[in-house]
Amino acid sequence: MLLPYAYATKRKQTQEERLCEQVIDRNRLYLLPSDYIIDSMDNDTLYHIFDKYVNSYQFHCCNVSRQGLRGGSGKNICADDRFKPSDPCIVYSFGSKFDFAFEDDVWRSFKCEIHTFDPSLSFEKSQIPYFVNFHLIGLSGKDFNQTKPGNRRYHNTLFRKVWEMQRLSTIQKVHSHKNKIIDILKIDIEGWEWDALPDILLTESLRNVKQICLEVHFGFRHKHSKNTWGNVPIQNQLKILKRLYETGFRIFMSQTFEWRSLYIQGRKISTLNELSFININF
Description:
The chain is an alpha/beta fold. It has helices at about 15-25, 35-40, 45-55, 100-110, 170-175, 195-200, 235-245; strands at about 65, 75-80, 90-95, 115, 130-135, 135-140, 145, 155, 155-160, 160-165, 180-185, 210-215, 250-255, 260-265, 265-270, 270-280.
């Protein structure tokens, strides 16, 4: 089991931070059960546990800032003094399909060094903002080249046939960011977050990450499908969220998408959620 990182330095809390923490103290935190109990649960119960967990905030951010549009491409970040990006700052954005609304707002707000990663589409007919360092690379739990069907399309544009996939630790090393702070890590990779996150946690690649904007696809890919998102069992998906908590990441904002919902035992549960985390070790 991964243990929480030690605080890098002891710092005196501001009055604002103390008041924010008191808000959460008054609301009892809901934490995930042990791995043993998770393994003993049926699928319906796992869906209910997931729904309760992602909608139970673990940290109160006083200044939530929306970067990008209100839809799926935009993300919520915490702009409290303790966590907001400050010059010099670095942002990693995984998954874009050449939609740079998130990057546009981050640049206007913080003037960070921005690296955007997406292996799926070619540069043809694409306009990349001058402040974005774009990489035809995808995020994965291992370094390899993935062959994709040549007939798949996105908005009438063919996907590339071969995708270069890399681990987060590899990307940090290649760009000399291994020992630098990543102010915002955005991961929006259509269910494959479950494939990438175990390696990210194992290699401690989140040690210097302040915030994570994570889109999670939970459970099975479709209502009657036997295939799970990222080909990762539902129990392990919950365990990954639990490891993030143990590593020091706290949910301060959650957004559900109604169009990806299931009715389970009389309760409507969204299986697609946008989660925003801060790292309490900063």
